[in-house]
Amino acid sequence: MQSLKEARDQDPYGFFAERLAAGPVHWDEGMNAWIVVGYDECREVQRREDVFKHPYFELNGAADVYGGPRGVLLLQGEQHHAVHGMLLKHFSPRTVNGYRTEFIADLVSRRLDALGERTRFDLATEYANIIPSDVIAAMLGLDWRDEQTMADCRTWNIAMFRWTETFGEDDSAFAEAKAAAENLNRVLLPVIRARKDSQADDLISLLWRQGPGVIEPWGEAEVLAQARVLFFAGTDTTSHFLKNAIYVLLEHPELQDRLRGDERAVADFGEEVLRYLAPVQFRVRVATRDVEVAGQLIREGDRVHPVNGAANRDPKHYPNPDVVDVERRGIKDHVAFNVGPRYCVGAALSRGEELEVIAQLLDRYENLRWDTDAEPARYRGYMPRSFSPLNVVADRRAGRP
Ligand code: HEM
Asked: Is the pTM of this model over 0.90?
């Protein structure tokens, strides 16, 4: 592989290791952009939004795709800071803990119940792919029991990610993403309108209540834009994380007994999976002025990709970066969720989902192993990516539902 551009459906980690050995920052001809693979440098680029701006707001068609110009992804400066802060406060580890007991645990059990008495299944399509959309839909106050609409929403959110990967430069991806966005608006708007005057115990009601004063004006457009971004950013990403976690559990079967019944160990395992297989592999920035990073002169207007997937394997920061080590020191200091002003709003939520998904899976089953008669797992995708399918055979644990 010569360029990050060629990474779709290919394992990029050999390429990352080569680049890392040659230095932290490189011009990537195929991407027509800089790739920043070093851990420290990646953090620096993400922290300094004054020098490396987040360019979504100026991408052709972004407002159509992301639910309007007032969503947290497209806002800039003070307005971004205010909305980002409001959302982060809501998705705190404490709030997420409450959600776990209120409904996440039940939503996860329900998907395991649906596997019935079978001991062979694809844990990607029947489990990891569907739980994050159940969770966000339930939080937003959508009808998560409507399987068809939920399946459609997942497809539409993925179409938006496809467009995101093209940085606004692919017309057919844009047409699909725009149609998907309109469909998502049709699902969300009736709920948003209903909650305006008659509030309930859900996130859309909370957005109506807490938004005014954070940025002005605050109305339907602002509520829709945040709801759309949360739905989009919180579904596919977390599915990739959960699939990677299950994949690593299957590749390292010795971890299964070790993690069972130990929430702290399941949490550390989740962090190591986020480091080892970053679900969102890289991001995009644009230099606002000439700037030097690790001795490379980046010119004003150049595109810059902080490559989280590579930074998480930087040997200068992580001893034995290609080894899964659930006892690693500083296990949470990976950049899978970014750092700085664009730190992921849903980090705690996806961590909470991982805890339930892995703990409950191990509580019900043991000796999870690959189903060698079925299609093997492959590392698929590009910017967001994971292993699928996850065809496994498992033994039910005695006395479990
Ligand atoms: C394992 C799962 C997830 C991963 C790996 C992930 C990763 C990321 C990354 C790398 C960014 C930075 C984007 C950028 O630099 O442009 C980000 C931003 C964001 N994430 Fe996540 N995310 C995950 C789950 C979630 C969930 C569950 C939610 C929602 C509940 C969410 C909501 C957001 C939002 C709203 C932003 C935009 C922040 C901003 O622009 O200020 N994410 N995420």
From this structure: yes
